[in-house]
Specification:
The chain is of the alpha+beta class. The protein is 21% helix and 30% strand. It contains 5 helices and 17 strands. The strands form 4 sheets. Strands 5, 6, 7, 8, 9, 10, 11, 12 and 17 form a 9-stranded mixed β-sheet that branches. A 3-stranded mixed β-sheet has the order 1-13-16, with helices on one face. A 3-stranded antiparallel β-sheet has the order 4-15-14. A hairpin with a 7-residue loop joins β6 and β7.
Length: 343
Amino acid sequence: MAVQGTSGKLSAKILAVYDRKLLSRVVATQVFDMFGQTKSIPAGSNTKTAFAYRYKNILPATTPLAEYNGSNIKAENKIVREEVTYSVGHYGDYIKYSDELDLYDLDNITASFLDILGDQASLTIDTIRRDVLRGGTNVVYADGGTTRLSVVDGNKIVTENDIKIMQIKLKNQGATKFKKVITGTTNVGTQPIRSAFMGIVAPEQTEDLRGLTGWKNVETYADYGKAIENEVGSIGDFRVIESTNNAPVVQVGTDTFNQNVYLGYWMGENAYATVTLRGKQGIQTKVKPLGSAGASDPLDQFGTIGWKAITGCAILNEAWLIRTESVASIEDTTAKHYYDYTV
């Protein structure tokens, strides 16, 4: 192999190219990464926890200041900063290739493998973040429902009134609207947007939202060119992002009939925190060429290509993250293609 060094390992420059390609593939399809407070794990820290800060508000100062008499200086207020710690973990996977592939165009094959692994890495990290948000305690059950079972029994979909209730809840709790979001690129940075709360929904939920009064398709925006990645529209104070990685949960109804319940996430800024994959060692390719296994591969018959990442997620403020639970009027029952693989 032209890229293989004398030690049987890939050069740092080649690995850097692979890392960049993998990261580009991953961040382009991330949804739950876009709206969290992002944190990085310092290289070499060997830590298993991350932390984020949240600040408590100060009550209004409604007492008039007394005329100064030389001693009656108003006592200072205090900022209360709480540190939220949460667990992070290493995740990864790899595939093996045989020496037969080395007879062909290994560079192109490596690129194809990285595409596949990039899709897997993206789905893995996005799912980990999604599952944390699913554990939130602030819930609005669709159309006046009181439990998940009542949503199923009443066949309830999200209504315009549900949207209004969530807007009021977020505003009354002092949630801040987003004015910038994480970019969909490999850079560590943000992009400015039109101020709004955010909602993340499944495609089935999108179709129900389209039927609500006040819904605007993203194509009708005056600033359509500045739409957020995967944005499908807006309603009230919310801009709505669609995620195909938002599978429903199954609830057994009173009639013992299984029905899908779809979870939506509606939030203000800094509702949750994530560990970003962007930056140094956020996600890495692990390429072991033919012959790199030493005595474990005496005839240089295989190599491996894989990925490794560290990530975590935590809800910072339950009052700023609302989960809706509803059924969908239209469903696609086809199994997703990445579930049909068997070893």
